[in-house]
Specification:
The protein is built from seven helices and no strands. With 281 residues, the chain is mainly alpha-helical. The radius of gyration is 47 Å and the shape is rod-shaped.
């Protein structure tokens, strides 16, 4: 809690210098963040911000304070900072409620957070109906008989003081119960909002994962289609070469067959002519 308080309030003049972390937020940057987040929060009817809404909030902060690499903020850092600011506001609000009005928070962002997520906002919602407070009982005093103006004034002051004191005593328990119920309702609503934010973040992550898987399957299908088309082209090319080779082989075989027949025919003719020449001789 000490680190949380130190990060949200300006450091004192007599404190020694502490090394600055890269995720430290200045008071001006936190103020800009609350303004940007508050506008989005109200635009969404006090609903949960999506990832693109947090990115717009981060862009608004970086446009004024993100001039260096260390002060540049991401959407996740802005969301974590808002969660820290909410926790700080709950702590300050609990101190104010416990003091019964005697303590006034000096935190510079208390009033702005109270307007956005304070108990007055939660009591306006239908889920938490306001608790009816008993009306003060005022007894009409009997008319004074021949009273002087000074006596009448003193009597009226004492009567008003007694009635106010009795009113607050009678309604103290009811006011305390209403404040406790409002605080409990706000805590439950904050927990529900955080749970809804986690569920929405999980759904967005799951949807993004499914879209990536679909794109990967599509790219795989395109590559597979190109590979199959190349295989068909190569098979057709090989088939053409095989048919051309078979045709050339058949032509050569027929050529050799014809030459062999011609040679055999010449040999036969030579054998037939030799006996006739011998007889003549």
């Amino acid at each position: 809690m000490g680190d949380l308080t130190d990060s949200l309030t300006p450091s004192s003049a007599n404190s020694r210098q502490v090394p600055i972390r890269e995720d430290c937020w200045s008071e001006d940057a936190t103020s800009t963040l609350i303004d940007a987040w508050g506008r989005r929060f109200l635009d969404l009817n006090r609903g949960n911000l999506r990832q693109k809404d947090w990115q717009d909030v981060a862009d608004s902060v970086n446009s004024l304070h993100g001039l260096t690499k260390k002060t540049h903020r991401t959407d996740v850092q802005c969301k974590n900072r808002i969660d820290t600011v909410k926790k700080k506001y709950k702590t300050e609000r609990a101190r104010v409620a416990a003091s019964h009005g005697s303590f006034v928070s000096s935190w510079p962002f208390y009033a702005r957070l109270d307007e956005l997520i304070g108990p007055t906002v939660s009591m306006k919602k239908p889920s938490s109906p306001p608790m009816a407070l008993p009306l003060p009982f005022r007894k009409t005093p009997p008319p004074a008989v021949a009273a002087t103006p000074a006596v009448v004034a003193v009597t009226q002051k004492r009567t008003a003081a007694a009635m106010d004191d009795g009113y607050f005593r009678r309604n103290y328990s009811a006011i305390a119960a209403a404040a406790a119920a409002a605080a409990l309702t706000e805590e439950e609503e904050d927990d529900e909002e955080e749970e809804e934010e986690r569920v929405s973040d999980d759904e967005e992550a799951e949807g993004e994962g499914m879209s990536r898987l679909a794109r990967a399957i599509k790219r795989f299908g395109e590559v597979y289609e190109r590979v199959e088309a190349e295989k068909v082209r190569l098979m057709m090319e090989l088939e053409k070469q095989r048919m051309q080779f078979a045709k050339d082989l058949e032509v050569q075989r027929m050529h050799m067959f014809m030459e062999t027949q011609v040679q055999l025919e010449r040999i036969k003719r030579g054998k037939k002519s030799n006996p006739s020449e011998r007889i003549r001789a």
